Amino acid sequence: MKIRFGRSTFVIVICIVLGILLALQMKGLNRKSVTRDSLQELQNSVIEYQKKNQDLDRRNNQLHDYIRTLENELSGSETGALAKIIEEKEQYAIFAGLRKVENDGVIISLTSNAPARMRDSVLRQFVNELASLGAQAVSINGERKVATTEIRANDDQIIINGVRFDRNDTFEIRAIVNPDSIDEYIIPYLENVREVILKELEGENWTITIKHEKKLVIPALREDRIAYQNDLLVPVE
Amino acid sequence: MIKNIGTHNEVEEIFSQYEAIQNELNTLVHNNESLLRQQKTLENKRRDLLDSLEIKTKRPELIQELRSARLLAGLETVTGIGLTITMNDKEGYDPLVDKSDALIHDGTITYIINLLNGAGARALSFNGTRITAVPQIYCIGPTILFYSRRLAPPYVIIAIGPIEEMLAVLETDRYLQRITSNEVGIRMEIQTGQVVIPTFSEYENFREHITHLEATRNED
Asked: Given CB 3.0 to 4.6 Å as the disulfide criterion, which of A5, A21, B31, B102 pairs with B90?
């Protein structure tokens, strides 16, 4: 009985010692797995969250002010709510692409000469590049790009927002971007994109021009377009 | 195993810096969660106040327009029937052996979004962030940057819309068939059902993305 108790105690002690050694080993491994790169990555996350929190804080303060105006309107002590609601609605509509907008931007004209035809992938590539360059509004042949816009080829046509365009026509992409970086950065970048695309299309006869346009106007999404529909969406309270 | 790190002291110093920054990040993440909760409360209060104001009865079209603009702008969390598409790079991707197609690129994501839009999607999100009118999606090394968020696989696209049409377009698309074939190896899984798509303002301030836009009169 005594021997069995002694053995059990011995096994328990060994297990504890092994556990401690394992924990120390793991700690050592954790330390060794930290590199300058992972430290930099962590610092980047800190900067990202700092910015996010600042933005959220600003937005919450704006909401506080807005709510105060609505409350004052409700209590009858102020009548500014209507103007605030209209202003808010307009900001949403601009962001959604429901308003015609204007500012400096770029126009990309694309012509594919027969037998070549316009490719949806080329249009999408330019639109994606413009988005990554921080474009705030984009249209293709007068069709405003919104969250649910499709750009796809179907036989002899390119369909954008449900509207059909002949693939032999010239296509025009318009984008409003940061006016301060158009000449120095955006146009040279797009010219590089053009060179890459033309190289891929070698053997086909394409003309792609890119220009800086002052007071460029981009139309609103038309109300009869499919992208205007929100019938399948239920707001979550 | 350890890059750029020489002595034991240096390892200790970097580790202690790491711990301090990790603590700072934990606090920031905690604050972020609390700010998001606060934002939700304020948004609900705003909605309740709008409902109780006389403007609602005097100018019902204004409140309707406001709601519609919020929905189309992607500034309202929405729910509906839709698809959840989960994508992963080829299992055990080896840059020396595998084609670059075996990795998911920004173009793969925008291609799928375009297909879903063509099939009538009404709202979409990519790894938890709402797709907007001009979504900034681009590759940085092996990861994808979506607005300020750096994303790594699995990539998840959620779309609310007509399920049959959206499924059909994904299943019959030749490019997707090719990249998900055994030869290329991209992994794609599609689920159907009730989904929730978050508001864009959960991660970003939309006002920063309209700073260069001046609204003009619509004459036509």
From this structure: B102
